[in-house]
Design brief:
The structure holds 2 protein chains of 2 kinds.
Chain A: E1 4-9, H1 10-20, E2 25-28, H2 35-46, E3 53-56, H3 60-72, E4 77-81, H4 83-98, E5 104-109, H5 123-127, E6 134-137, H6 141-155, E7 164-169, E8 177-182, H7 185-191, H8 215-247, E9 254-257, E10 264-268, H9 273-285, E11 290-295, E12 297-299, H10 303-310, E13 315-320, H11 331-340, E14 348-353, H12 363-379, E15 386-387
Parallel strand pairs in A: 2-3, 2-4, 4-5, 5-7, 6-7, 10-11, 10-13, 13-14, 14-15
Antiparallel strand pairs in A: 1-8, 6-12, 9-11
Helix pairs in contact in A: 1-2, 1-6, 3-4, 6-8, 9-12
Chain B: E1 2-9, H1 14-27, E2 31-36, E3 46-54, E4 69-72, E5 92-96, H2 101-107, E6 113-117, H3 119-127, H4 133-144, H5 153-178, E7 180-182
Parallel strand pairs in B: 1-4, 4-5, 5-6
Antiparallel strand pairs in B: 1-3, 2-3, 6-7
The chains are: A alpha/beta, B alpha/beta.
Chain lengths: 392, 183
């Protein structure tokens, strides 16, 4: 493929990127709204446009199992799922990171049942937040395309060797046709070095992976896992810098928009960040000193980037798209409160939950949330969280 | 920014209309979005699809609530749904119907510009079947001036192949020429 701008469905752009990354194995089970990604990959393999194994399976549990086996022999490995599929996959999801297998997964974020919903929010990904994977969020088709390469580049780096979940909002992203700048195959080939497992599974040189661990070693195993994830931050940033050097598109763990002199910032994660930008533009015209802070890297959590973005802000108004039932707020707000609580002059954190199951959060809604958060902060009404826009 | 809402029934290709217009607009250097009203596909049920076109990057990630253009693929929807909901004051409603403006206004009160084209007949004659999504795109191009007919030829042929694609282009061109707009 040559460098070209295309109007394309984001799911297809992701599948094409997996092809350009010269993926060796794809194993997946179809589930809305992820379906178009793996459907297209299946076509690419069947039409011999991509020289890879496509392993259809009977469940997501098997899909991740196949991916783990493939990565263990040194194959570049991809899968994709959503919601209930991720729930069924969860057992092996945790094992992939513990065994340091660099699987890349497009996680087309969708609400968890019940009630049954095929629409988008972040309840599925929050279920596996503590699964030891690198989690990145994107907010448009270009970012989704770019981050397929970034995900392979980071996951397979010998200094990292961890699976990466590329979180893309279901429907809002996966079913959107929009412009995407494709890069040429040679550039991609240079960006992602060949993947070599130092000690692959091979019948000639038997190794044991995923062993039983006695209490004497379990904690140490978890410590190395924690350290690997925390240390992957440096490679995440380096891989973004390398991407910027060849494409001009620069990404950061935490990104801001009109936030430098802002007193109040709306904090988002995922595709609604752009709508928030439009709302901030309108509020700025009315004289409000507001900005946007966007969390791109969710795990490992970019504490220092957050501290820099939050410095000097009066209040952060966090939009969560999932609930920690019975807890003190949505997952992103919990993270920010916890990260900021001991820092001097920490901003106030106000938390809204909105956009569950793809309920629209429009520019007008964002304006109401930002101004509502400002008012709550002034009143000291900042504990817990507020459901935005509940009916009745 | 120009915002379009398509009304059709599941299986009539409203999403394809939105998609091809977006792809053609992107091909002319513009920014565009096209997306369905997300949900399970239900053949025959009323569905909507959306399209946005702008000269600059589009930030909104929400449905179109105040369209400039509403396109109706299925005239059976005219009295079933509030088609002009949110339509901007200077917007236009484009209807596939064999009926005249006066006949339509007997049963509907549209207080806006209305474009009418008999896409059923055009599609039947040019394609041999009453699938009007590509035909109606000709009416949209005419009413909006978004781009020229030639700008959509590439995306159309990519989607349907050279033979069927050219037939669809013929239907599209006829709708472009046969659209009647009443102020």
């Amino acid at each position: 493929m040559a460098k070209e701008r295309k109007g394309i469905e984001v799911s297809l752009a992701i599948a094409e990127a997996v092809g350009q990354a010269d993926c060796d194995l794809i194993s997946a089970y179809p589930i809305t709204p992820q379906t178009h990604i793996v459907e297209h990959l299946s076509e690419m393999v069947a039409d011999a446009h991509l020289d890879a194994e496509f392993v259809p399976v009977e469940s997501e549990h098997s899909a991740m199992s196949v991916c783990c086996g493939a990565a263990a022999v040194g194959a570049r490995t991809f899968t994709s799922t959503s919601s209930q599929g991720l729930a069924l996959m969860a057992e092996i999801f945790f094992i992939a990171s513990a065994m340091r297998l660099p699987v890349v997964m497009a996680l087309a974020n969708r609400s968890l049942s019940a009630p049954l919903s095929i629409w988008n929010d972040h309840s599925d990904t929050m279920m596996v937040r503590d699964g030891g994977w690198i989690h990145v969020f994107v907010e448009n088709g270009q970012e989704a395309y770019d981050h397929v390469f970034w995900a392979f580049r980071v996951a397979e780096d010998p200094a990292v060797r961890l699976p990466v979940a590329l979180n893309i909002d279901g429907f809002i992203m996966t079913h959107m046709i929009e412009p995407v700048d494709f890069e040429d195959d040679e550039l991609i080939k240079r960006y992602i070095p060949e993947f070599r497992m130092e000690k692959p599974l091979h019948p000639d040189n038997p190794v044991s992976m995923g062993c039983f661990a006695m209490p004497e070693i379990y904690s140490e195993a978890q410590m190395t896992r924690e350290r690997a994830l925390v240390d992957s931050y440096a490679t995440c940033v380096k891989a973004w810098e390398e991407w910027a050097a060849v494409t001009g598109r620069q990404y950061h763990p935490v990104e801001t928009y009109r936030a430098d002199d802002a007193e109040y910032c709306i904090v988002t994660m995922g595709s609604l960040g752009e709508t928030a930008m439009a709302a901030v533009d309108e509020l700025r015209e009315q004289g409000e000193k507001v900005g946007v802070i966007k969390i791109r890297l969710w795990r490992p959590f970019p504490f220092d980037d957050l501290y820099r973005a939050a410095a000097g802000k009066h209040t952060l108004i966090v939009l969560d798209r999932a609930i920690s039932f019975g807890g003190p707020g949505g997952p992103v707000a919990l993270e920010l409160r916890s990260a900021l609580c001991n820092s001097p002059q920490a901003p106030v954190v106000v938390n809204y939950v909105a956009g569950l199951a793809s309920r629209d959060v429009t520019v007008e809604d964002f304006k109401a949330i930002i101004l509502g958060g400002k008012a709550k902060s002034a009143e000291g009404d900042v504990a817990g969280f507020t459901f935005y826009g509940l009916r009745g | 920014m120009l915002e379009i809402r398509f009304h059709g029934r599941g299986g009539q290709g409203a999403v394809t209309s939105a998609e091809l217009i977006a792809v053609a607009a992107i091909g002319t250097g513009k920014y565009a979005q096209a997306f369905p009203s997300f949900g399970p596909e239900r053949r025959g049920a009323p569905v909507v699809a959306f399209c946005r076109v702008d000269d600059k990057r589009i930030l909104a990630r929400a449905k179109v609530y105040e369209p400039d253009v509403v396109v109706v693929l299925d005239s059976g929807l005219l009295t079933l749904i509030d088609l002009v909901e949110g339509l901007k004051p200077d917007g236009i409603l484009i209807i596939n119907s064999k009926r005249s403006y006066e006949e339509i206004m007997d049963s509907c009160q549209f207080n806006c510009r209305v474009g009418i084209v008999n896409a059923d007949q055009i599609a039947q004659e040019e394609l041999g079947r009453v699938i009007v999504n590509t035909t109606m795109m000709g009416a949209v191009i005419k009413a909006t001036g978004l781009f020229g007919i030639d700008d959509i030829r590439g995306p159309m042929l990519d989607r349907f192949g050279p033979k069927l694609g050219e037939k669809n282009m013929k239907a599209l061109e006829r709708a472009y020429n046969e659209l009647v707009i009443k102020e």
